[in-house]
Amino acid sequence: MIGSRLSSVIERRLLVNYRVDPYVAAALLPAPLRPQLVRGRAVAGICLLRIGGVRPAWAPAATGLTSENAAHRIAVEWDGPDGVEQGVYIPRRDTASRLNAFAGGRIYPGEHGLADFTVREEPDAVRVAFATRDGEVEVDATVEPAEELHGSGLFTDLAEASEFFRRGSRGLSPGAGSDHLDVLELSTDAWKVTAGRPRHVRSTFFEDRDRFPPGSAVLDSALVMRGVAANWAQGEPFRVVRGAGVGTA
User: Fold this and answer.
1) Three-state SS for 208?
2) How far is it, in rounded angstroms, from Cα 151 to Cα 131?
3) Cross-strand bridge partners of residue 200
4) Could you give the CA distance from residue 100 to residue 236 in angstroms, rounded to a whole number?
5) Helix, strand, coil shares of the chain as percentages rounded to 5?
6) Residue 167: CB partners within 8 Å, gap ≥ 6?
7) What is the CB-side half-sphere exposure of residue 145 using CA atoms within 13 A?
8) Of 66, 121, 170, 196, which one has the fewest beta carbons inside 10 Å?
9) Can you tell me whether residue 141 is helix, strand or coil?
10) Is residue 226 exposed (0-12), middle (13-18) or buried (19+ Cβ within 10 Å)?
């Protein structure tokens, strides 16, 4: 695993959010994680990320790599030594980069599956679609910019949504055959998100009725991040209880 930070620029990040029945979300989590609730609902979603300039923190920016990536996420909390801690459980990460797919779980935390991405960026909307090479997941999301966050059942306004996701900076994802989760933490001094409006979203992950019974996962909102310098650091592996919760996509 990496022994130092990775530097990068988040060129574009779409956070497409769902409000989820808390009991359904809890069944997808390994103990001791539990869903983080907002107004009585769990928060889950898809992060659609184009990240550029990825490199060791000491390396010149010109050496950095750019790739399209996606993560299905559930906001979680757990009891730490100093109180309740927060993060996101990531049952599945996918990428268009063969290097990321090779390095994830080996050189840096988080195993990645390979996927084929289609991206179209226009002034009035961004569309990101992908299909995983293993045939397990397909996503097609179009988000248009908005001045304010409207229609969310989770968040009263953009500021509340922004703070919620800013605090969930630790991503915890399963490793193969392990009693631990890999931990990758995002840090930035330039956190900024803007409101989006989901125009069209399709995700076979959230439409899987075995995983999410009808009505248990409802599309809620979208946020957009652009041009944010960010660092990524490996955290201490997180111990889980084998056999508790589902914990896989």
Assistant:
1) coil
2) 28
3) 142
4) 20
5) 10, 55, 35
6) 86
7) 10
8) 121
9) strand
10) middle
- 79 has pLDDT over 70: yes
Q: How confident is the model at residue 42 (pLDDT cuts 50, 70, 90)?
A: very high
Sign of the dihedral defined by the CA atoms of residues 26, 27, 28, 32, in that order: positive
In tens, the pLDDT along 142-178 reads 999 999 999 999 999 999 999 999 999 999 998 766 7
As a whole number, mean pLDDT of residues 89-113 equals: 80
- Alpha-carbon distance of 173 to 243, in angstroms, equals 15
Q: How far is CA 228 from the centre of its chain?
A: 16
| Per-residue model confidence as pLDDT tens digits over 109-147 | 777 889 999 999 999 999 999 999 999 999 999 999 999
Interstrand relation of 41-56 and 6-20 (parallel, antiparallel or unpaired): antiparallel
Long-range contacts of 95-101 (CB under 8 A, 24+ apart): 95/67, 95/68, 95/69, 95/70, 96/67, 96/68, 96/69, 96/130, 97/65, 97/67, 97/68, 97/69, 99/65, 99/67, 100/67, 100/69
Averaged pLDDT, 56-60 = 75
